[in-house]
Each structure stands twice: as structure tokens, then as C-alpha cells.
Amino acid sequence: MLPAEVLKQARNEILNWHDSGMSIMEMSHRGREFTSVVQKTEADLRELASIPENYKVLFLSGGATSQFSMVPMNLLRKKKNADYINTGIWSKKAIKEAQKYCHVNIAASSEDSGYTYAPTQDQWALDQNAAYVHYTSNETIGGVEFNWTPDLSYSKNNIPLVADMSSNILSRPLDVTKYGLIYAGAQKNIGPAGLTIVIVREDLLGETVQNTPSVFNYKIHADNSSMYNTPPTYAIYITGLVLEWLNKKGGLKEIEKINISKASLLYDLIDTTDFYNCSVEKSDRSRMNVPFTLKNTDLDTEFLKQAQDCGLIQLRGHRAIGGMRASIYNAMPIEGVLALVSFMKEFANNHA
Ligand SMILES: Cc1ncc(COP(=O)(O)O)c(C=O)c1O
């Protein structure tokens, strides 16, 4: 979801942005008008997420999937190994790409359990010679979230922590200093599809694997203020509006409180009835994506149909795992979750 206020503002500005006589979509990405948009978007993101000066913010295209390759291409820095934590379908995809560039050490994995938990850091078998440690802070499909931040500060080798935050970035306060690099496709919590945000510590830039194309080189993007090639301008503009909306809501601390309330409403209902089930360990449940199943899977189709009739849409689970999934990103108002909970209660009563 995108906030309705943002979509309304975008609608009002679509033909003529701030009396420029143009739509954002028609502007030169290097022109004065768009430069002001991108600069404000970056400044707002820096303020919201307290991003220190020694980190670059890059606005790229290519999706989070492109980062599965760009991370090893740019962060291996002559090393041959990288550590990955395998907690679900997205970490697995990241691992598969990284294996094209280096030896991947699976430092921890919850695959055996069917990806129902996030291994605690004392279960991570880290390689002291790894170029970096990669984890997926929220597994969008499985609904497994790290509700804690890994800490590699003890490691003598200063190994950078890398996070795929595609589906929980800006849903709670974060300590950027704990990371070497954070990446996220914007389309879940930040804006529309097409924009990929990378936040990377400056000292990690500059050395890429041989034959890395320029367009995959972070340093080139950083040196060109994300204007090495044409960035996804409209997606950046909408992102800017979402960041302003988030600021008005009170920033990350406030949105976290709302996200906790929304997720608790759903999990509480799932846990208090036998009719529904969520197999993810309680401590590692995602505040953004709530996967659940019906005990009687014969009712799945009926559940989805009746939900749709009530305006409760896109509840079908990912094709890879089936069941249901309620994605309740920042822009989903609590009223949306209350409507779902009330529908689920009624459905359970009618089919018990
Ligand atoms: C955690 C995570 N990583 C990576 C991706 C892939 O993102 P994209 O489709 O932008 O390449 C997704 C998409 O849903 C995701 O949820």
C-alpha cells in the first residue's frame, strides 16, 4: 500500500509539478527541479533513519535482486569467502547469486525447520576471513523477521554486516552504524517499484571484482550522486512524498508503535483460535508480513473469496508456500487490520 495522502498529492501534481509546467515524469533528471526533489528525498531519508555522514545513499534501479549480485561484486574486495544467513526464500536467492562470485559459507540456516525462525547470533558459525556477513532482516514470504540487530563489532577483522531490508526498512528505528551496507527495493515500505535504495559505508567502496560493469559499481554511482545513468525519477519523487508522510506521522519510533499494534492484533487472533495457525516462532514473527494457514485447507478458496467480497484483497499466500499472507506495511492503517481481524473471527465462527 501507499498512503492515500501521498497518492492524492501525486494526483494533484501529476500534470504540473510546483508550477514548473511539467510533470515530474517529463523533467530532465539533471535539471534544477528534479535535483531539488532528489536532494530533499535524500536529506529526509538521512534524517529519518539517522544515516551518518560517512554513509552514501544511492538511488538505483534493478530491484533488490540486482543487489544479490552487486553486493559480492563490490564488497568481496579480493576476499574469496562471504558468510550468509539462510532464513528463507529471499536469503536463498541472494546466496545463489553470491555463489557465482565467491565461496558462500552458510553461517546459520533455518531451512531444516521449513524456515520458521531466525537463528540467534550465538548459533552463527562465522568465518573470520569472510568479506562480509549477509542476512535478510525480514523474509517477506515466510514472515520471519529479525527483531534484533546482529552485532559484528566484536570481530577483530571489522567484517561488514550487509542486510536485505527490502520488506521492513523504515518500519522501526534502525542503527545504521551497525551495518556496512543496507539495501532495499522501495516497493514495500518506501514507494513504488522501480527504485532500489542502497546505504553504504564510504570506506567499503572502490574495489570491484574484475569486469564489473560500470552500472554495477557502487563507487561510480556514489561519485555521480546517483546520476551516472537515469535514475527512476518518478519512483524517487513518490518516495520523497512517502518520507514526508512518515515524518508527519512522527518518524520511525511512532510508526514502530503502530506496526506493533497492527501485528499484535493479527497474531493474537491467530493464536487464540484453533481455526488459524502461524508456524513462525513467536519471537521471530514479522510485523510486516503475517503468514497463516487455515486448519482446514479445503476452506482456503472460500476464505479468499469471502474476504475479497469484503474488500480484503491480496491475501493469498506466496505461490511458493501457499496459505494466506497479510502484508501490513507502514501505509496499512490500523482500520485495515481491524477489518481483517473481524472478518477472520466471523469466518471462523461460521465454519467452526
Ligand atoms: C526480502 C526481499 N528481497 C528481495 C526481493 C526482490 O526484490 P525485487 O523484486 O525488487 O528485485 C524481495 C521482493 O519481494 C524481497 O521481499
Task: Outline the structure in words.
Strand 2, helix 4 and strand 3 (about 105-110) form a beta-alpha-beta unit. The protein has a seven-stranded mixed sheet with strand order 1-9-8-7-4-2-3. A three-stranded antiparallel sheet has the order 10-11-12, with helices on one face. Strands 5-6 form a two-stranded antiparallel ribbon. The chain is built from nine helices and twelve strands. The chain starts with a helix and ends with a helix. It has two domains: about 5-250, Aspartate Aminotransferase, domain 2; about 250-350, Alpha-Beta Complex (Aspartate Aminotransferase, domain 1). It has about 350 residues and is of the alpha/beta class. It is about 35% helix and about 15% strand. The protein is globular and about 60 Å long. Helix 1 packs across helix 6 (about 235-250) and helix 3 (about 65-75) packs across helix 4 (about 90-100). The structure holds pyridoxal-5'-phosphate (PLP). Pyridoxal-5'-phosphate (PLP) binds near residues 136 and 185. Pyridoxal-5'-phosphate (PLP) binds next to helix 3.
